[in-house]
From TrEMBL:
Keyword Iron-sulfur in annotation: no
Superkingdom of origin organism: Eukaryota
GO MF annotations in UniProt: hydrolase activity; metal ion binding
Family as reported in the entry's similarity comment: Belongs to the HAD-like hydrolase superfamily. DOG/GPP family.
Record's keyword terms, sorted: Hydrolase, Metal-binding
PANTHER family: CBBY-LIKE PROTEIN, XYLULOSE-1,5-BISPHOSPHATE (XUBP) PHOSPHATASE
Pfam families found in the cross-reference section: Hydrolase (PF00702)
Record flagged with keyword Metal-binding: yes
InterPro entries, per database record: CbbY-like, HAD-like_sf, HAD-SF_hydro_IA, HAD_sf, PGP-like_dom2
Coiled coil ranges: none
Name of this protein: Uncharacterized protein
Organism classification: Eukaryota, Viridiplantae, Streptophyta, Embryophyta, Tracheophyta
C-alpha cells in the first residue's frame, strides 16, 4: 500500500485524527489530522520526510525526469474515483443521541410501565455493544430477570418488548421534534458536498425506522431528507456487526460496495461496514471514544465545520482513491 508524503509544515499534531504510523525517516509515531487540506492525508498512510518534501499525488503515476533538465514527464493521470454512495450510521454519527436521547427514553418507558428498571450511563454503554433496541432489552432481561409484569411465553415476550420499544420510540421522537438533540458538527456540510457531486446518500441504522426518519427530517430538513434513503430497524433480520444492512443498501442503491464510503462511530458499525467490503471513516462519539478502531480507514473525533473542520467530501474521495492505486 503506497504511502502519502506530506510536507512536515502541513501536519498538525492532534488527537482528532489517529494514524498511529511510524515516520520512515525518524522512526517516531505521530497522530495527525489534515490542516484543512484533506487531500494531503489518506487514511492511515502518512510519512513525514522534511519540510522540503514534495506531495506525492496518488492520482499521478509513472512520473519521471524527461532529461537532465528539471522538467518531469507524466505518462498517466487518473481521474478521481468518486464514491458512488456516502452511507451514514445514525445514532452517534448524525446526532450523539445515546446517553441523553435513547437511554432517557428507555428509562421513561420503563418508569411509565412501572417495571422497576433503570439503565444508568455506564450500564447503557455496555448494552450498546448489542445492536438494536429490542435486542438490547431482550438480552438485558434474559441476563438479569424479566420484570414481574412481563408475560411468560416466548411469543408474548416478543410482543411485550415490541410494545416497550414502540413507546420508547414515541418518547424519543418528541426530543427530536423539539430539536433538543442537535446534529453533530459537519454532518450537513458533508451531505451537501456529496449532493453537489451527484453522489447518493443513505442512512443505515439499527434504530427504529421512524426514529431515524425523524432525525433526518427534522434536523437535516425536508429538502435533504427527500434525497436521503433510509435503511433502518427490522429492514434486515440481522443487526450490526452483521453486514446485512450495508449489503442491502448497496444492492438497493445499485452501487458496488467497494465504491461506498461509510461514516460510523462504533466498533460494531465499523465491523459491519468492513465485512460489506466498504471504506469506513470513524467519527468517535461519547460512548465509543475508547473503542478499538484499528481496522478503520480513518478515525476522527467528528466531521467538523470550518474553522474546526476535520475532513470533507474531498477527503472521502481521496481515501477511496487509495484503494485503486
Amino acid at each position: 500500500m503506497a504511502s502519502i508524503i506530506v510536507p512536515a509544515s502541513s501536519i498538525l499534531c492532534s488527537d482528532n485524527f489517529s494514524t498511529n504510523k511510524t515516520s520512515s525517516r525518524h522512526g517516531s509515531t505521530h497522530q495527525v489530522r489534515p490542516s484543512l487540506q484533506p487531500s494531503s492525508v489518506i487514511g492511515k498512510e502518512v510519512s513525514v520526510r522534511s519540510s522540503t518534501s514534495k506531495f506525492s499525488n496518488p492520482l499521478v503515476r509513472n512520473c519521471s525526469r524527461r532529461s537532465r533538465g528539471s522538467s518531469f514527464r507524466c505518462s498517466a493521470v487518473d481521474s478521481p474515483v468518486l464514491p458512488s454512495a456516502l452511507l451514514f450510521d445514525c445514532d452517534g454519527v448524525l446526532v450523539d443521541t445515546e446517553k441523553d436521547g435513547h437511554r432517557v427514553s428507555f428509562n421513561d418507558t420503563f418508569a411509565e410501565k412501572e417495571l422497576g428498571v433503570t439503565w444508568d450511563v455506564d450500564l447503557y454503554g455496555e448494552l450498546l455493544k448489542i445492536g438494536g433496541g429490542k435486542e438490547r432489552m431482550t438480552a438485558y432481561f434474559n441476563q438479569t430477570a424479566w420484570p414481574e409484569k412481563a408475560p411468560k411465553g416466548e411469543q408474548e415476550r416478543k410482543e411485550f418488548i415490541a410494545s416497550l420499544h414502540k413507546r420508547k420510540t414515541e418518547l424519543f421522537m418528541v426530543l427530536i421534534e423539539k430539536k433538543l438533540l442537535p446534529l453533530r458538527p459537519g454532518v450537513a456540510k458533508l451531505i451537501d458536498q456529496a449532493f453537489a457531486k451527484d453522489v447518493k446518500v443513505a442512512v443505515c441504522s439499527t434504530s427504529n425506522e421512524k426514529a431515524v426518519s425523524a432525525i433526518v427530517s427534522f434536523l437535516l430538513g425536508p429538502e435533504r431528507a427527500a434525497k436521503i434513503q433510509i435503511f433502518a430497524g427490522d429492514v434486515v433480520p440481522r443487526k450490526k456487526p452483521d453486514p446485512a444492512i450495508y449489503n442491502l443498501a448497496a444492492t438497493t442503491l445499485g452501487v458496488e460496495p467497494s465504491r461506498c464510503v461509510v461514516v460510523e462511530d462504533s466498533g460494531i458499525g465499523l465491523a459491519a461496514a468492513k465485512a460489506a467490503g466498504m471504506t469506513c471513516i470513524v467519527t468517535k462519539s461519547g460512548y465509543t471514544a475508547d473503542e478499538d478502531f484499528a481496522n478503520a480507514d480513518a478515525v476522527f473525533d467528528c466531521i467538523g465545520d470550518p474553522p474546526e473542520e476535520r475532513f470533507d467530501f474531498e477527503f472521502c474521495t481521496t481515501l477511496l482513491q487509495k484503494q485503486y492505486v
